[in-house]
């Protein structure tokens, strides 16, 4: 392992956040169709696997709120919004893939697609959206701090952003990894906490989630962990018990027994 990799795998710094324009462009091209090519564009076989996880850690805290317009950041088909679709009047999805652009509504709610710019600037006016969802997308982006600041800019006063991201390295991203896109890497928890604070978000709720042994066992039994209420509750309990283990790069067996993701309910003050 070279010195640069050790620097980023330490969990103190975020790889890609200080990239040059050309480096960001190269990254963007690599990731543009990454998620779609992992199976999301195959309508007949694709199933969204995180409804209960999103509901338990985020949506259930939005009971008394209605949204005029929501932004699904990197939301592909927009499936993630279905549990709260009746609370939303209009949806905009910011996604680089051409695979989903033909979608015009989600459960009768109007939906439009916009392509993001490669540098992370969002093509929206300030304070446009009442809700932004971003589930497992930021870690596919190089300049996370800039894109998060753009989310803050585009969010209305008192608007809500739901953010879920992996907080582990996801292995050595300089090499091909089965089931992962070329560039994705997790975001160290301390880095994400500081970034959110510096931008100005108020953290209304923060939950650790995704205890790795659970989905592995459930998969062998043919169960989708995070669409299952009981397993999602067990996952939450175990993540709380193992809060002490949020190491970023986990190589040893015992290090893998700890929460692998974090879920935030953020508010623009």
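^ Assign residues to that structure.
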């Amino acid at each position: 392992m070279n010195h640069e990799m050790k620097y980023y795998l330490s969990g103190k710094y975020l790889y890609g956040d200080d990239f040059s324009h050309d480096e960001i462009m190269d990254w963007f091209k690599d990731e543009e169709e990454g998620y779609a090519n992992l199976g999301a564009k195959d309508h007949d076989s694709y199933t969204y696997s995180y409804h209960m996880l999103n509901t338990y850690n985020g949506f259930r805290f939005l009971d008394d709120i209605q949204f005029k317009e929501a932004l699904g950041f990197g939301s592909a088909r927009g499936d993630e919004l279905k549990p709260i679709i009746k609370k939303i009047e209009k949806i905009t999805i910011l996604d680089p893939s051409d695979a989903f652009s033909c979608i015009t509504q989600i459960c009768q709610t109007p939906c439009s697609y916009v392509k993001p710019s490669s540098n992370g600037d969002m093509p929206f006016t300030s304070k446009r959206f009442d809700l932004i969802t971003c589930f497992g997308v930021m870690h596919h982006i190089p300049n996370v701090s800039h894109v998060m600041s753009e989310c803050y800019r585009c969010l209305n006063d008192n608007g809500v952003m739901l953010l879920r991201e992996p907080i582990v390295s996801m292995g050595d991203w300089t090499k091909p990894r089965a089931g992962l896109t070329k560039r994705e890497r997790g975001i160290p928890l301390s880095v994400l906490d500081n970034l959110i604070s510096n931008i100005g978000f108020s953290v209304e709720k923060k939950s650790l989630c995704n205890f790795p042994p659970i989905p592995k066992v459930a998969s062998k039994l043919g169960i989708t962990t995070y669409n299952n209420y009981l397993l999602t509750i067990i996952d939450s309990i175990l993540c709380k018990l193992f809060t002490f283990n949020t190491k970023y790069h986990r190589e040893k067996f015992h290090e893998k027994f700890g929460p692998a993701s974090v879920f935030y309910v953020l508010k623009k003050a």
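The domain at 3-268 is CATH 3.40.50.150 (Rossmann fold).
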